[in-house]
Amino acid sequence: MPCTVSMTVNGKAVSREVEERTLLVTFLREHLGLTGTHVGCDTSQCGACVVHVDGRSVKACTMLAAQADGAQITTIEGLAASDGTLHPMQAAFREHHGLQCGFCTPGMVMSAIDLVKDNASPTEQEIREGLEGNICRCTGYHNIVKAVKAGAEAMHGSGAKVAAE
Ligand code: FES
Ligand code: FES
């Protein structure tokens, strides 16, 4: 049965009629065209679909769009500043080569931002544990850990976008 869902996505109010069973990830990708949020599995294991719902990381394949009604959603497309300046965590992934094919990267970045929100200096173990729900089949994680560490320092150094989320 169709239902109307309304939410704020990357700062813009959106409202669409969807089937009740529509997943949030499907809503973002197919109804809003925000294909930076990826789908890498059908078992809720890979984390490629992570977005922020009211400031917290959520696997968008585990939630119905209707459950996000009224929420504030941030996707990977909503992180950079309007002039194209990358979010500090995005910049750190680029700087530290925290990706190869890039498929896992949007989910990694979204999870990493939430992970370090309250922790300017996470240990390697905290980062690895915090990203347990995100699978990368390319990098061996070493550079991802380095990127998250650097991103955490940059976020807490600049403070700008962290406070805004
Ligand atoms: S698509 Fe794999 S966890 Fe959501
Ligand atoms: S960079 Fe390819 S899956 Fe992570």
Task: Please give a structural write-up.
The chain has 165 residues and is of the alpha+beta class. It has two domains: 2-76, Ubiquitin-like (UB roll) (Roll), CATH 3.10.20.30; 88-157, DNA polymerase, domain 1. It contains six helices and five strands. It has helices at residues 24-31, 88-95, 105-116, 124-130, 142-158, 160-164, and strands at residues 2-9, 12-19, 50-53, 56-59, 72-74. The protein has a five-stranded mixed β-sheet, sandwiched between helices. The longest helix is centred in the C-terminal third of the chain and has 17 residues, at 142-158. The protein binds FE2/S2 (inorganic) cluster (FES) (2 copies). One FE2/S2 (inorganic) cluster binds next to loops. One FE2/S2 (inorganic) cluster binds at residues 39-41, 44-49, 59, 61.
Distance separating the two termini: 33 Å
Number of helices, counting only DSSP H or I runs of 4 residues or more: 6
User: Could you tell me the number of beta strands?
Assistant: 5
Please tell me the total number of domains.
2
CATH class of the largest domain: Alpha Beta
Element-level helix/strand string = EEHEEEHHHHH
Produce a short descriptive summary.
This protein is α+β, with helices and mostly antiparallel strands. It is built from six helices and five strands; from the N terminus they run ββαβββααααα.
